[in-house]
């Protein structure tokens, strides 16, 4: 398989990926120093995030110009999320947090900005751009999972998180979406490839920001009656 396009994409985010690995949230997963409230906030926000992520994959499915890609993505909208949801549900059960509480939590400013961007691209832009926006969500998590796997974590919750994203179950859809990304650009002009890259870089920045928001226990600076 020709992986030149995705190699180029990864090259375009190497400084961002490096900063992700150096972020205290990520470092704190392996050395155990991540404060529990930051992890809890992250997992709750992530459960909200996944709702829009799934809808964005479904929109990509509807736009797929090839049946084989539509079938693959339809499977992701259902199955990929099952793996991540089971991680979340296990943690919520251990923490005594109900599904109702989770889904009644307002999205943080960063979460809302990221998911709004994803959904906007998914509904407004052509198929290849939607894949560009979705790709960091798959790929960065897999790379981070693999990177942290060797060090592991003294904290069982953080170890579960690492195991999920380093797992073969998570790797399969990542490889599939990478294959779609490399195939879909075969006949694309440089200008259209650049638009894919722009979304890829933007969403990679949002990935860093998502962990950072939880680390800072981000909240809205002003409040109404919610
Ligand atoms: C914010 C975020 N980005 C990506 C993933 C991996 N699907 C996730 N669970 N959360």
UniProtKB/TrEMBL annotation:
Domain Thiaminase-2/PQQC span(s) in chain numbering: 10-216
**Uppermost EC category:** hydrolase
Gene3D superfamilies hit by this protein: Heme oxygenase-like (1.20.910.10)
Q: Spell out the SUPFAM superfamilies in the cross-references.
A: Heme oxygenase-like (SSF48613)
Keyword Hydrolase belongs to the record: yes
This protein's GO CC annotations: cytosol
Q: Which GO terms describe its biological process?
A: thiamine biosynthetic process; thiamine diphosphate biosynthetic process
Instruction: Please give the superkingdom of this protein's source.
Output: Bacteria
* Function according to Swiss-Prot or TrEMBL: Catalyzes an amino-pyrimidine hydrolysis reaction at the C5' of the pyrimidine moiety of thiamine compounds, a reaction that is part of a thiamine salvage pathway.
This protein is called Aminopyrimidine aminohydrolase
Q: Organism, per UniProt?
A: Sphaerobacter thermophilus (strain ATCC 49802 / DSM 20745 / KCCM 41009 / NCIMB 13125 / S 6022)
